[in-house]
Amino acid sequence: MKYREVEYTVIQGMGRQLWKWGFVLENKALTGQAATKVEAVADAERAIDKALVPRKLKLVRSERDR
Predict the structure, then answer these.
(1) Domains in the chain, ordered, with CATH?
(2) Is the pTM of this model over 0.85?
(3) What is the Rg, in whole angstroms, of the alpha carbon atoms belonging to the chain?
């Protein structure tokens, strides 16, 4: 499957109530699991969104600005 140009997989685990998802972004593998396939897809897409958000920078005031 593909979401926001990121390939991810969703597979059924051992048993009916286990679905696993995973993707690789910037050489880092992210995985998870859910009770249903719909939840697994939503969790994977949410994780992709979170991984794609640029890091927020904290502004530090210099002594001169105080």
Answers:
(1) 2-65 (3.30.160)
(2) no
(3) 17
